[in-house]
Amino acid sequence: METLLRDRPQMRGCISSNKDIYNWSVRNFAGEAAAQRIYWDKADPNCSSCLAEINFSSSDSNKSIRIRQFFNSGVKKGATLSCENLWSALVFEFHNMSNYKLFIGDDEEALSGVISKREWIDRSTKREFKSVLKSREFYRKTWLPYARSQGYSSNPSYWHMGKSDDYNEWISSFTDPSGYPFTYGKQFDEDIAPYVRK
After folding, report:
1. Spans of all domains in the chain
2. What is the average per-residue pLDDT within 141-150?
């Protein structure tokens, strides 16, 4: 945890007096999220449109999280991401990592030809939607009360607030073909399709 805060120093700013959030993160890195240790990787995510990502494989025991430090597109390109924005990304990816065995199972079924590209994408986004819901709960129960106690304004959009609690409505709100969830199609074409066992 201290290595992450050294690499992303702005993340210290908004939790300096909250040991609960810090300790929760330590426990998740230690194994609470994935039933095994998660490592911090200071590299930017491979996905150019992603703020953060998890990395894992069925053949490698190392699980890791990457979080981008700077905006990499748009009018804010090159600007440092805020403390709260980075914390929301970390919380989301901890929740996402708890499903890593299910993600691996989906990959195996796709590689075996059991599920189609469409089914693979649907499963991936539905698992991430569950992480969205857990992140919202963390925001309501933990982050927002802390922010109010410190007298600073929180940005609920970082925590996926303001969108539907229904998966179908939520997924249909994404319309940019260069962004989520359309990037999953490219990922399937590059990482799954060439290796499907027929």
Report:
1. 2-195
2. 94
